[in-house]
């Protein structure tokens, strides 16, 4: 399964939801202290991305302005400035724009057509062509695997934010609400029309900064099929946290599980040996809390820190079969079952053979295994 960077969307909007006005100059929505907060976030990431539209409209530099923060980056062995990234299908980019002549390394992700155009009219950046169309997952995998980007800050504009959120690729949205109105329907909005996740996002923070308010949200809706979404990572992390709450046992794994509906509503959670039951498994405990036949189960995802069991001596029905019987068709897990108790257990294989989409996110395997360190052979 490919891994992506952590993707943080950052934007400031007016009270009527606009990113800018239609005047020639950039509309300053944030307050001075909030610009400093943005500088701090920039200093914490490996790369900053904006769309070509923002380069054209604002001619931004996208620097870490604080000398102390840059010094801290170099002291930590990082480049002084985060990598600057832009996307353009057309390749129509002004070689004189500030973006190319300030800060550290730059990369443009584009199409074959855009790359041809950039060979004729080059900019001071690496150019990566991703085929006839630009696929965001391919771009994120390239950033992670080729450029080593683990945290990516996306600073707009609306076209880019809308795509990343709608495709389930944004881990976090940092939204600043500024106390002013734009009132011009020709001005750009943060999010365009289209299909977003159903249900509610998770509000993780609100912070007053002078006269603006920072709100931070996480998406909650599981991905679909075998493609992981950012929200899958959050729910799997919760399952791993639940595993750490299990009373340890010398004869069974400590596992956490969460069942989440398609709209991001948590239906139930459970962990091994919960409620004083010495043999209950995490998925079993969670599913037992949902009424059989609940119509949300068919579109739900089960998150489990360890892949569901296929054999167990404690009870007749293994968890993989309980999941199938519940009608769940998607499972996200962190850790394939080691041979500790059952040789060659393959819960993922059994579920896949039965038509369930199984997503394994091995980057969480360490967190899933940690509460089971006492079982190590
Ligand atoms: N308030 C804030 O926090 C904030 C932050 C940033 C920007 N803004 C404002 O937002 C406005 C710009 O937003 P915008 O939506 O017009 O532009 P944008 O999102 O910055 O850039 C859009 C451009 O990026 C490229 N692009 C986007 N998705 C692509 C894809 N899937 N494949 C290939 N290329 C892709 C295209 O470039 P090509 O046209 O070259 O093909 C597209 O025209 C400006 O007014 C700016 O001031 C505000």
From TrEMBL:
Catalysed reaction equations from the record: 5-amino-6-(5-phospho-D-ribitylamino)uracil + NADP(+) = 5-amino-6-(5-phospho-D-ribosylamino)uracil + NADPH + H(+); 2,5-diamino-6-hydroxy-4-(5-phosphoribosylamino)-pyrimidine + H2O + H(+) = 5-amino-6-(5-phospho-D-ribosylamino)uracil + NH4(+)
Key words, A-Z: NADP, Oxidoreductase
Enzyme class at the top of the EC tree: hydrolase
Protein name from the UniProt record: Riboflavin biosynthesis protein RibD
Family: In the C-terminal section; belongs to the HTP reductase family. In the N-terminal section; belongs to the cytidine and deoxycytidylate deaminase family.
E.C. code: 3.5.4.26
Signal peptide annotation: none
Pfam families listed in its UniProt record: dCMP_cyt_deam_1, RibD_C
Pathway involvement of the protein, from the record: Cofactor biosynthesis; riboflavin biosynthesis; 5-amino-6-(D-ribitylamino)uracil from GTP: step 2/4
Function: Converts 2,5-diamino-6-(ribosylamino)-4(3h)-pyrimidinone 5'-phosphate into 5-amino-6-(ribosylamino)-2,4(1h,3h)-pyrimidinedione 5'-phosphate.
Record carries keyword NADP: yes
Residue ranges constituting the CMP/dCMP-type deaminase domain according to the UniProt record: 230-344
